[in-house]
Every structure is written in C-alpha cells, then in structure tokens.
Amino acid sequence: MSAGPNTSGVKTLPDLLSRNAKTIGSKTAYREKEFGIWQTWTWSEAEAEVDSLAKGLLTLGVEVGDLIAVAGRNRPALYWAMLAVQKTGGIPVPLYQDAAAEEIAYALENCNARFAIVGDQEQVDKIADVRDQLPNLKHVVYLDGRGLRKYDHSHLSSYAAVQDAGAKANNDAELKARQDAQTYDATCVMLYTSGTTSKPKGVVLSNRNIIETAKNSCAFDDLKANEEILAYLPMAWVGDFIFSMGQSLWTGFCVNCPESPDTMQADMREIGPTYFFAPPQVFERQLTQVMIRMEDAGKFKRRMFHRFMDVAKRVGPKLLDGEPVALMDRLSYMLGNYLVFAPLKDTLGLGRVRVGYTAGEAIGPELFQFYRSLGINLKQLYGQTEATVFITQQPNGEVRADTVGVASPEVELKISDSGEVFYRSPGVFVEYFNNPESTADTKDAEGWVATGDAGFIEEKSGHLRIIDRVKDVGKMSDGSMFAPKYVENKLKFYPDILEAVVFGAGRDRCTAFINIDLTAVGNWAERNNIAYSSYQELSQNQQVLDIISQHVSEVNATIAQDEMLSGCQVHRFLVLHKELDADDGEMTRTRKVRRGVIAEKFDDLLDALYGDMSEIYTETEVTYEDGRKGKIAATLDIRDAELSTPVAKKVAAE
Amino acid sequence: MSEVQTGYVTEDGRQIGDVMLDLRAITLRFGGVEAIKNISFDIREGEIRAIIGPNGAGKSSMLNVISGFYVPQEGEVWFHGKKRPPVKPFQVARQGIARTFQNIALFEGMSVLDNIMTGRLNYTKSGMLAQAIWKGKAEREETENRERVERVIDFLEIQAIRKTPVGRLPYGLKKRVELARALAAEPKLLLLDEPMAGMNVEEKEDMSRFILDVNDEFGTTIALIEHDMGVVMDLSDRVVVMDYGKKIGDGTPDEVRNNQDVIDAYLGVAHDE
C-alpha cells in the first residue's frame, strides 16, 4: 500500500482507525513497555479499546462539541482517549503534563473543559488544586489509580471503570450517529501554543488540516505501514499529534510508548525506530554521552573511534547524498561501519532510522554532521503549530545544516517586503480559540499566515533560510541587515560559548557580549593546568580570551561569506564576568536572552565596546539564589576581533 | 496509650484492624548488658508504627526480636493471636514478615532485578534439579515471581535501573532497591530499619510517599525505626519511644510529642519557654 490504504469516506481520525481495523486489523498498532515487557495492541484491539471508552464517555454525558483535556505522559491509552473523544463528537485538548497547576487552570478555564482524562495522581492533584476556579469541570478520568483510592470518587473515575460502563451500555447507535455526523472541516484537536510572549493561545485544527498534512508528509518521506516510531515528546505538542496520531493512523504504522521517561534511551534501543524526531538538545545529549564514554574507553578503542570518525566526517555525508566517492574512501567507510558506526548507531537506538528530523531550534553544524556522517539520514524541518507542523523540510539528498529545506507538499511560501516568511497550505489552522483579533493578526483573508520569522529563499537551491525573529531583525546605520540571533547561534555552536548577545541595530558595526561555558572551559583549564578560583577569573584569563577571539574570527569568516548578512561581523567583543541569569532578569525562564534589558544594565560596557578602550572597570548587582542582592566588581578586557573581507554585498531589500 | 480492642479509624479515614503482633514484657540481654528491658507494645493490622529513640536505645534490637534474629531471654511474642515459639529468621519470613536493613545489605555485584528476585525465595518450591532442567513447574514459578517483581519495580519507579548492578547505584536508590526486595516477598508486616538515614530532603520525600503508598495499596502493616522526627510524626499512626532499653512513651504522634519524658530524653528541648 504505497499511497496509503483506501481513503474513501474518511472524514475523521476515528474513521481512519475503523479503516485500519478493517484492512490491517491484525497488524500491531501500539506498543507500550510495562512490567518490563512490550505489551502490544493490534488495530482491531485498539478500536475495541477506543469504542468502549467512547461509549463510557457517552454515559458520563459528553456532548457534541465538548472540549476535553487530556494530560499525561505518552501512553497508548491516552492516544485512545483522544480518539474516543473525537468519536463522541468532542474535541481533545492535550495539555503539557509538566505544566504547573495555574497553567492547567488557565487552559481548562480558557477552553471551558467539562471533562479531563489524565494519566495519574499527579495530574489529578493539579486539577484538584484549582478545581474551585473551574465550576464547569464535571468529571475527571484517570488512567493509573495509584494513590487515588482514598479520593472522593463522586467526580472522578478510573479509565477502566469508564470502559466497563461503556462495554455494558447500550448506546452503539448513538455513538455511530455521532461519528457519522462529523465533517471533514470539523475541529479535530485544539493545541495550546507555548506562549513565550503572552498567554498561550488555543490553535484550532480541523480534520482536514490533520489528515491532509499527514497524507502529504507521509508521501514526502515515503512513510509506510511498517515504520516504527517512539512516542516520547509531549502529547500537547503538535508534532507528536501529527506523528503519533495523524501519520500513524494514515499509514497504519506502529506507535511505541516508553516505560517511563527515564528508560527512553533503553526502550528506543529495543524498538529501533525507523522514523525518528528529536529536538537538537536530545541529539546533543546523546553526543556528549558518546564522547564521555569514548574518553573512558581503552586506548585502542579510542584510536579506532577517532580514526574512523575522521573517515566518516569526510565520506559519510557524501555517501548519504549519493555523491561520487573514491573507492578507497568507500572501502574504509565500510570497514568503519562494521567496526564503529553500526555498533554506535545500535547503542544510540538509531540503527534502523530511515528518516530522522530535527527542528525547534537551530542545530549546530558539527552536531548535525556527526549524525549524518554515521549514515543517519537526519534532516531539518521548519514548522509551527499554526501550520500543522510542516512549512518546509529537506528532501533526501538535499540536506544542509544552514537551511530548513524546500516548501513541504502543497505549501506555498512568500517573503514579504520586510523579509518575513508567509505560508499558505492545507494545514493552515482554522483559528485561535475565542480570539478573532489574534486570528486576524496572523492569518489574512487569503489564508496567508505570518510566521514571525525573517528569512529568504536561496536562489541557487530554492531552500528557505531562517535568519531571525522579525522583531529582532534591524538595520545598521548604513542600511545593511542586522540579524543578531543568526550571529549568536553561530557563536553558541562552539561548546566554549554558552551565551552571546550581539548588538548593532542603528550602529555602524556589531559588537558582542559573550558568556563562557563553565563546564567546557573549566574542563579545558583542568586539562591544561590552568588554575582559577572563580567564574570571573576564568572568564578574564588571557588564554581563554585568545580561544574566544579565535572563535569570533572564525564566525566572522563565515558571516563574511553571506551576501545579505556580511555587515554583521563582530568587530569588538568582551567576555562577561557573570553568567546571564533569569534571576537577574537578563534571560527569560526558557533561557532566551533579553537583549534590551542587557543593553540597559550593562550600558557602561556597551559604551566601552563602541569606544576605544582596551579594558573597563565595572560593578554589577547580582541576585543570589536565596534572593539576597550583592555586587561584583571586575575589570574586563575588550578585544578587537579579526575581520574577514566580505563577498560583494547585496542590499537587504531588493 | 489507646486501649481499643477492635481497631480504630485514623484521621485520614483508614480502618486499622486487630492486633497483629503483640510483644509482651520483652527483655533482651547480651551478657550483662540489658538491651531491652521489659518492653510491651503491639502492632495493629494496617497501621504504620514507628519506633524512635536516641542512639543505643535498643530500637534495632527490638526489630531483630520481631524478625526472629534475636531470641529474648524473657517475654513473649504473639503473632496473629498465637504465641510464637523461638523461631529462625527464615521461618519468620515465611510467616509474612520482611525487613530492610540499616546498613544496606544487597548483593552489590548483582543487578537490581536479580537482587529483588531473591526476595521471592520463599515462593520458589521447585527443587534444584527441576530448576536446572527448567521445565514445567520451575518455569511457571519463575514467570510468576518475575511478574510480581516487575509490579514492585513499577510501583517503586525503578524501571530505568532494572539491569544496573547495585554497586553502581547511589545510596538513595540502593535503599529503594532494598525496599523493593522486601516488598517482593509480599509481606504482611514490613520492618524498616531507618529507611531514610543519610538521605537528602527530596529522597526522604520520595521514600515517605512510597511508604504511604505501600501501606495504602497493599494494606501492608509497617513498623519503622526513624530518626527524622518530622518524618515520623507525619507518617506514623502510633509511636513507641525507647530510651536506654526502656519504653518511655507510646501513643499517637501528638501524644508522644507532648509527653514530658520523651521531650527530656529524646527531643532534648527546654521545658518551658
């Protein structure tokens, strides 16, 4: 079934479930490791589970159009819960399981949920904490009853009890009627955005959004019914909904749920997913673990590892892209694969990955190349909740670290005069829940949606490149484009650099504040017998500054190659004497730098960067963890960075 | 001391049953040293019973009397309404009493799973030969035992370390593995010797939650020795206080907290403000 099973009459995800149960009923649909063993459910069994739960929900009084919250870790039963809700005509609203009680309260209140289906006691407790604020919340259903026996069960039942009630109830006709009454354009799911800037907004996605997107994205990567995926990313995230619900139901591939978040790595190795998604942090953590373990390995193994990794770096990506490779290189890669790469991939659980994606944040080129050189087809995609994930993605054979790929199937792209990326696709969201103003701000009458990101399409390859958030992009005094995050990301890809803040809007040149990474630099200092007593002292060590200076000039060299952003080379920089900290208001809680606050707080340093001093004395107020305030004083070196000659410059707006 | 005959109901609504273990006038001597002097108290079904006291008060000796490791020179142990003759620890274990140790006593080189499986020894009836051949009853037993062990692993949330050798684990987790091994024996009465010694606040909170959950889910009666007064007062239904081998207090945490002898001997707080 290359184009997916027959689709006639399919309007909803429960329709796809029924179709799978009919056509591939005995195929494994869900697995979950429990009690040390992988428990499996076929599509027919899954349908039976969903049906009894849906009937049980009817007995609880779920009405058509009810918004029903779902919160918990990835478990088959919770995916079924979402399907059961849809079957009864309700709308599932998955919530982040680690959200605080107030955030849960906000979401439940905002969508006026009458029911909630949750994983365990933790979630029940969180809802109980805020129950007073939620007069409309009628009933809570929980999956794992541990610790809940003594709770008042007048508005609380176990998942199994609801299923039992459903199995006994005589309401099949009503359930069928409700399922049949649904349309392709009815709401499929509502997902909350992360809300970095304001209160989270509920993004309403229709059946059409989900099913069309699933269809197109499966065709793009040729995903089939025999794929295996690991469902470990939050269920409230649109990506998980598309992978574990949309695509899985569309193609019929199997969704595997780990035993617990801690066992994810081991469980992944046992499953060996063929289609895998992870944010850059996950890949980074894996790589660090590999490197640490290699350092502990014997001399012979270590040398073998490094020797063949050199081969892999040179040859691997070319092989993956199908480019010509010399015979000798090919042979040593094969040997390396036998001795190093294949066992390593197996340990990481990536041995069978056919298609891997990373998204969410910029991924360091070295990190990206490491995985690709092992022969793992890791690609990037660019997307957002409002687009039902996919805006652009990289086709096989056209993978690069610095682009996010070409427009996904049936997605149209447009760059506005201000440089902002707009898209239009079958996946474009219906609306923000109860928020017509925001909907109108984001989506115009013709269906074009603003991403809030500035980018451009490379002429040669047709790939989209994202530069920065639109609101951060500015112009320098000579009119050339200034994109601080672009430069900062390049700097941050060096392990020695933890944070970087680049200034230059309205100025004639760019400068930067840099934070060293204490773990990486401290490790280096230890290996080189460099004594230091504090972060501050290490940060001003001349050898450390030399290293950072080296990094900055390398970054300058790459920026100089960029036609549009060559004006963003960092002319002068200093290494800050303290780590930027959310407690001091310099960063957000999600560790994003607050450029404005930093510029104001360290205005003396900023003036010095644009002056001609080679060092400056400064005093800074800091907040300790217990809330007390103190002052630290330091004399900071200001360094001039080496600049590269830019390629012929193009003016930002043509 | 409460003199209820047929159990009582706790503040949080749990039904506490009849007397399960009754210690009557126990005296234990090591040569000339009287470790326990004429102590009597009981443990009721379903309750969490704490034994507290300063170092050297005889708490661990008391636990060892219950577990059958020490045989008291005087006094009687009544279990489930019957007088218990002097017994060996393995016989006590068969009667449904399991324990953890103050100093962790696990097999360091074995995996967590194998360590917990040793807790199932009393449920293995097939002979050595049958187990070597690995057919029929032996295989069935192993499967049953493993299933029970996996439930305990799930209950204590130690899935991630299932196959890790115990020697590689941090202290707090080792304590949890010990608890797991004791639970694998499906005890009616669980004896915990300082389950929270040496733990940080977070680990203590975790352990407290597990103890409460064990009591709640499996209805296991628990007797525990603990130094952290906060933990004891929060967890237990009734507390016995010992000092120099003598019982100086017995009752609910509130009663004990206000007992002047206890304050003098153990808490060491000033009498009046």
TrEMBL record, chain A:
Signal peptide: none annotated. GO terms for cellular component: membrane. It is an enzyme of class 6 (ligase). InterPro entries: AMP-binding_CS, AMP-dep_synth/lig_dom, ANL_N_sf. PROSITE patterns: AMP_BINDING. This is Long-chain-fatty-acid--CoA ligase FadD15. Pfam families: AMP-binding (PF00501), AMP-binding_C_3 (PF23562). The keyword Ligase applies.
From TrEMBL, chain B:
SMART domains: AAA (SM00382). The keyword Transport applies. Keywords: ATP-binding, Hydrolase, Nucleotide-binding, Transport. Gene3D superfamilies: P-loop containing nucleotide triphosphate hydrolases. InterPro entries: AAA+_ATPase (IPR003593), ABC_AA/LPS_Transport (IPR051120), ABC_transporter-like_ATP-bd (IPR003439), BCA_ABC_TP_C (IPR032823), P-loop_NTPase (IPR027417). One of its GO terms (molecular function) is ATP binding. It comes from the Bacteria. Pfam families: ABC_tran (PF00005), BCA_ABC_TP_C (PF12399). Coiled coil: none annotated. Residues 21-269 form the ABC transporter domain. This is Sulfate/thiosulfate import ATP-binding protein CysA. It comes from Octadecabacter ascidiaceicola.
